[in-house]
Amino acid sequence: MEGHYYLEKYFDKRLLFFSITSANLKMFKVLSMFYALT
Length: 38
What we know:
Keywords: Membrane, Transmembrane, Transmembrane helix
Strand content: under 5%
Distance between the termini: 56 Å
Shape: rod-shaped
Transmembrane segments: 15-37
Number of helices: 1
Number of strands: 0
Structural class: mainly alpha
């Protein structure tokens, strides 16, 4: 039971990290497109 709880916590952290990373990648793409236009 303890291991399952730990696994859930670990998965939540990975999911949070992934969402933050994907948001940063989208921002980076928008910025690079903006710089390419100027």
